[in-house]
């Protein structure tokens, strides 16, 4: 792809791209010192193909844009570094140029017809009705900085690489049936268990543990008896809400705010519409005639255009959402009616209004409280700025938290025994803490008795704090956890004693005894669980016991922990149902496709590694780190 792009990078086009490149580097904080000879430095090489720093920057920016869309916000350079965008770009370009080199060696070709079909029939350039849209095609190319010639050359190279790598696809996109059968039968076989449950309490009460035994339990399970680090201190919080009470809002200001935001309180009429588009007027007239005769809109669309209900449903649209030619026809008919055929640049439309949502226009009285508060908060934000400046001056002069708070007229709040999760020593959430995530992080990044500083949060608020006492994380003493440790020790003793007894009962079953006899001996009953796969929950059995059930022969016996974890089960196979790939063919086919895709990924990865060794591949990691991971 990059090789094709370089073919068109001479003359005025190269100069234009260089200007754009300089601008993009400036936006990303990359100085002019890297331009000139640096921008033409090759950062990747494979065979005869090279990737310059400028080309790498272009692909890097594409990767940033993709990630930004995924996270629904524009990533900063620091965030891009944390996400490893530079490394992802290296991997993408490495695969591209190595595969491109092999495609060139094999003299793979692509016809103009294949390129044209890829453009016109692919999903990237289709309009709302699924047709190729040249205007959209040109818009996408322009937005990404490609000319038509550049894009065609890039696409041609991608098709060549696809031809190369698609040779690893399994026939029909499915794995060998014998392999799929084995995995499908393993995971979708169903069983039930016939079992007897033996509770730990059957062995009787546990003896009272000694202090030495309890301490040994604590030492063996320190994580369960370790208290987190706790911190105590005080803080002040500055938000606009703190100063709203200092603001007087006049009626004129409320009215002005309401008028300025009038559009916010007005919702235009919208209509949920269904649409058919025909290339020829005659076909549209035919469809309209069938609808007039009483036929269903969706049925006609399916018959004449092979469009499903989902295909023709466009959802709610306001008048401004529609093409100019459609606005009046659609918004002049009643709910349930269909327009006459209407011609636009896309063809002949028939539109049915499925639902009408009337416009809403709230009055000042409807939103008075909201508007008044908005004005007050705006003025309070100005007050906050003044208070913030005053606090910084106080802290710079050595004032304590209490002294500075008194000067600006706000109260100091305290926190005691606070852990990193915002909980106290009883595990309850501490009330009244700032909701900003920066607060707890600052509490645990601040040493005790350090002079306070003002911290701004991502939401624009401020806080300052002092840590007065730090209680390090440590194993709790026996005196503090005696009750919990004693209960745990007794439960452990009962479970271990019960395990010995149940193991002896299992030996009896293997020696010829029946579950009914064991049930009678333990004063229990023989239960039958639900029928389920090994991934599902089987009544009465823990996950460990479930796996043992699926390892049993038809007449075998096994023991495992019960579902509650406070006893054991002795079990054998009850009902057994082999996986039915005919009854659940979609699931079987999906598994086959998943396995095939996994095989293909493994083959491609191995082939890619082979190509890199045979063709040769190198990357200037230092240069990339210098400019993209600062």
What is the β-strand count?
19
Oligomer: single chain
Determine the number of helices (DSSP H or I, runs of at least 4 residues).
24
Unreliable residue stretches: 1-40
Q: In whole angstroms, how far apart are the ends?
A: 28 Å
Known CATH architecture of the largest domain: Orthogonal Bundle
Write out the CATH superfamily name of the largest domain. Answer: Porin chaperone SurA, peptide-binding domain
CATH fold field value of the largest domain: Triger factor/SurA peptide-binding fold
CATH top level assignment of the largest domain = Mainly Alpha
Give your account of this protein's structure.
This protein is of the alpha+beta class. It has 4 domains: 181 residues, Triger factor/SurA peptide-binding fold (Orthogonal Bundle), CATH 1.10.4030.10; 132 residues, no CATH class; 117 residues; 90 residues, Chitinase A, domain 3 (Roll). The chain contains 24 helices and 19 strands. The strands form 6 sheets. The chain has a 4-stranded antiparallel beta sheet, with helices on both faces. Helix 10 crosses helix 20. The longest helix is centred in the middle third of the chain and has 33 residues. The radius of gyration is 36 Å and the shape is extended.
């Amino acid at each position: 792809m990059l090789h094709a792009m370089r073919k068109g990078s001479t003359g005025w086009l190269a100069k234009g791209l260089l200007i754009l490149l300089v601008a993009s580097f400036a936006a990303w904080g990359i100085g002019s010192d890297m331009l000139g000879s640096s921008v033409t430095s090759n950062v990747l090489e494979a065979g005869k193909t090279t990737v310059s720093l400028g080309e790498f920057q272009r692909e890097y920016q594409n990767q940033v844009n993709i990630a930004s869309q995924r996270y629904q916000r524009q990533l900063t350079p620091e965030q891009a570094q944390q996400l490893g965008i530079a490394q992802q770009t290296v991997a993408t370009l490495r695969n591209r140029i190595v595969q491109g080199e092999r495609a060139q060696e094999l003299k793979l070709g692509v016809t103009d017809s294949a390129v044209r079909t890829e453009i016109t029939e692919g999903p990237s350039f289709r309009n709302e009705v699924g047709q190729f849209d040249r205007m959209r095609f040109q818009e996408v190319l322009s937005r990404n900085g490609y000319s038509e010639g550049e894009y065609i050359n890039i696409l041609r190279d991608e098709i060549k690489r696809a031809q190369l790598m698609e040779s690893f696809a399994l026939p029909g996109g499915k794995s060998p049936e014998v392999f799929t059968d084995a995995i499908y039968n393993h995971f979708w076989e169903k069983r039930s268990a016939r079992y007897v449950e033996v509770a730990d309490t059957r062995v009787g009460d546990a003896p009272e543990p000694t202090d030495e035994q309890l301490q040994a339990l604590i030492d063996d399970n320190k994580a369960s008896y370790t208290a987190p680090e706790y911190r105590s201190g005080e803080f002040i919080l500055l938000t606009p809400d703190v100063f709203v009470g200092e603001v007087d809002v006049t009626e004129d200001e409320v009215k002005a705010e309401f008028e300025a935001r009038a559009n916010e309180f007005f919702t235009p009429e919208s209509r949920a519409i269904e649409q058919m588009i025909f290339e020829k007027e005659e076909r549209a007239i035919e469809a309209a005639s069938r609808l007039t005769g009483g036929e269903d809109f969706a049925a006609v669309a399916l018959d004449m255009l092979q469009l499903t209900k989902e295909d023709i449903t466009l959802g709610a649209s306001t008048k401004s959402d529609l093409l100019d030619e459609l606005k009046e026809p659609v918004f002049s008919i009643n709910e349930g009616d269909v327009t006459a055929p209407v011609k636009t640049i896309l063809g002949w439309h028939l539109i049915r209004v499925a639902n009408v949502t009337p416009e809403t226009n709230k009055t000042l009285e409807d939103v008075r409280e909201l508007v008044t508060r908005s004005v007050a908060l705006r003025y309070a934000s100005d007050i906050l700025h003044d208070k913030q400046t005053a606090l910084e001056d106080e802290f710079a002069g050595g004032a304590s938290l209490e002294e500075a708070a008194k000067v600006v007229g706000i109260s100091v709040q305290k926190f005691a025994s606070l852990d990193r999760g915002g909980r106290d020593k009883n595990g309850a959430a501490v009330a009244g803490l700032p909701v900003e995530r920066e607060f707890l992080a600052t509490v645990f990044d601040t040493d005790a008795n350090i002079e306070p500083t003002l911290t701004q949060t991502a939401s624009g608020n401020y806080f300052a704090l002092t840590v007065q006492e730090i209680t390090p994380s440590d194993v709790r003493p026996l005196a503090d956890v005696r009750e919990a440790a004693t209960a745990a020790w007794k439960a452990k003793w009962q479970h271990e004693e019960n395990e010995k007894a149940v193991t002896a009962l299992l030996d009896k079953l293997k020696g010829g005894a029946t579950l009914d006899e064991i049930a009678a001996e333990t004063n229990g009953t023989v239960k039958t669980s639900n029928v389920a796969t090994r991934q599902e929950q089987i009544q009465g059995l823990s996950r460990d016991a479930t796996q043992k059930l699926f390892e049993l022969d038809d007449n075998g016996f096994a023991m495992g922990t019960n579902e509650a974890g406070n006893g054991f089960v002795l079990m054998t196979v009850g009902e057994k149902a082999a996986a039915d790939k005919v009854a659940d063919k979609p699931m079987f086919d999906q598994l086959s496709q998943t396995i095939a895709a996994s095989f293909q990924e493994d083959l491609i990865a191995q082939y890619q590694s082979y190509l890199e060794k045979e063709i040769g591949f190198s990357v200037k990691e230092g240069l990339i780190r210098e400019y993209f991971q600062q």
